[in-house]
Amino acid sequence: xxxxxxxxxxxxxxxxxxxxxxxxxxxxxxxxxxxxxxxxxxxxxxxxxxxxxxxxxxxxxxxxxxxxxxxxxxxxxxxxxxxxxxxxxxxxxxxxxxxxxxxxxxxxxxxxxxxxxxxxxxxxxxxxxxxxxxxxxxxxxxxxxxxxxxxxxxxxxxxxxxxxxxxxxxxxxxxxxxxxxxxxxxxxxxxxxxxxxxxxxxxxxxxxxxxxxxxxxxxxxxxxxxxxxxxxxxxxxxxxxxxxxxxxxxxxxxxxxxxxxxxxxxxxxxxxxxxxxxxxxxxxxxxxxxxxxxxxxxxxxxxxxxxxxxxxxxxxxxxxxxxxxxxxxxxxxxxxxxxxxxx
Amino acid sequence: xxxxxxxxxxxxxxxxxxxxxxxxxxxxxxxxxxxxxxxxxxxxxxxxxxxxxxxxxxxxxxxxxxxxxxxxxxxxxxxxxxxxxxxxxxxxxxxxxxxxxxxxxxxxxxxxxxxxxxxxxxxxxxxxxxxxxxxxxxxxxxxxxxxxxxxxxxxxxxxxxxxxxxxxxxxxxxxxxxxxxxxxxxxxxxxxxxxxxxxxxxxxxxxxxxxxxxxxxxxxxxxxxxxxxxxxxxxxxxxxxxxxxxxxxxxxxxxxxxxxxxxxxxxxxxxxxxxxxxxxxxxxxxxxxxxxxxxxxxxxxxxxxxxxxxxxxxxxxxxxxxxxxxxxxxxx
Lengths: 343, 332
Description:
The complex is a heterodimer of chains A (343) and B (332).
Chain A: E1 5-16, E2 19-31, E3 36-40, H1 47-55, E4 64-73, E5 76-79, H2 85-89, E6 96-99, H3 113-124, H4 129-142, H5 148-151, H6 161-173, E7 179-183, H7 191-208, E8 211-216, H8 219-225, E9 228-233, E10 236-242, H9 243-248, H10 253-260, H11 306-309, E11 315-318, E12 321-323, H12 329-339
Parallel strand pairs in A: 3-8, 3-9, 6-7, 7-8
Antiparallel strand pairs in A: 1-2, 1-4, 4-5, 9-10, 10-12, 11-12
Chain B: H1 2-28, H2 45-55, H3 61-74, E1 76-78, E2 85-87, E3 94-95, E4 100-101, H4 102-137, H5 142-156, H6 159-172, H7 191-225, H8 228-236, H9 240-268, H10 272-277, H11 283-294, H12 297-325
Antiparallel strand pairs in B: 1-2, 3-4
Helix pairs in contact in B: 1-12, 4-5, 4-7, 4-9, 4-11, 5-7, 6-7, 7-9, 8-9, 9-12, 11-12
């Protein structure tokens, strides 16, 4: 089956007074219905920028976007990058929906949540406002908000953070979209609430048979729910593979570094967590060669100073497992074992 | 919501009482004797004292205040016998220089000031908000720059300059009959005459206020447009038109309710300069004459208290309106 979303060579950059900010570069990935793709990376790595481009939510006048983001709809494929703003608008909410990081500020403070969900429903459905509110109650029920018929009249400030994120999910799913982009949906929430929301997303995915893109900086979040993962660094995908491979056979020094920096329950006590030294490079003037070179502990293993002169390609080193690194597979295996014994 | 209104209402009554008391005190302790002013140079002490009694100024200030408040509710009498004058409730006092009950003077002046204020109010809101929204939507484009020029002119041009300029211009173009100008025309009997009478002062006042509102609206719309919930609205698939009308403006204009209400209340107390330039017999001119020419204490006290009351009451209205607009305010 064809994947529902195919992103091909997507690049987004913003012209600023200081120069062109290359926020995301040559991004390609795809995600099928029923599948969850995690996009992992630190702040500024281009995760959100990429997904906003797919949704057509960038200001076209202030952004340079190239490449394609093809939605394979029942009526035929449509590229949200080249389609008219009006055509893309009519896909939003219906074919593709998005939820955001901070549920505190993502809901309009002046409208009741029922009004806000009913508004989304009313965009693509014939019916009175009362029908919309009825549908809102159903959705709130579905996402596990107790007393939905009463709470539908309440305003965002009367809900807790976790409940607001549930409201956001209810609103995003009200028109039964085929693709849901969740941009750090649990970052602003308590840890216990985080897992509830992730479980809810998983349940909803099964309920609606959606393709889900889960954007996060937290590899811990990814493990539970994702099928595949893209690791992004400085606007590029540096590694892409099935989720288990990311954890057990990481193939890029950055991923290895990320995994070493999070605590694991199955590891010996008393072991220090390893931080990745340094800072990500400026997206205005990316260094020549590999963007991760200055922070990479293994770059001297590569002969001829290749890391400094040549941008590595995103190569399929093992079947289905892509990595953007000059190291050979043997060297990477060495790196994995010496760094943290992840394998 | 009811509790909220009741609470605000109580505090409003309290503030009005305090304001009226302080106004009374301030004017009672001014180093000027209204009784002495009632007769000319060759005034003898018994005459002054008799007039003081007639004015009701021969009793302690708290008794004067008590009489004033009582007069507001049941009306008031001045003097005795043949010289007895009655002012019916609400009696603000009696102007001995104008030989009228203050209430009568205010009742004649208030419609003029109200007409001036309400027309200017709608004009500046219309102008300020639409220009502000336009400037925000076309940020950095020529519309934005043009609005900046308008704002600069509006803010830096005081009404006594713009008013005189517009008055002279209108005079040159034959738009004003200096003899007719300023005569009160009721909007109910002669709406066209009413508009003709007021449109120039409306423009003058609106220009001054619209500039601030343009700036305010522009920055609020720009700020609100970058809010997360506007991005959510866009992600829902709403059209830009609906987003602007329903989502952005609702939040961006809420604070404008507050300043608009207070600006309007301020104007209700009398637009002194504009009324003077256009010869409009409103509360501003009434106060000005009482202060500068007549030293007409009852009029001064009344118009001051009235102006303060407008502000306090409008504040209440604004608070209630705001609670209606912003659900987060609706607590206890």
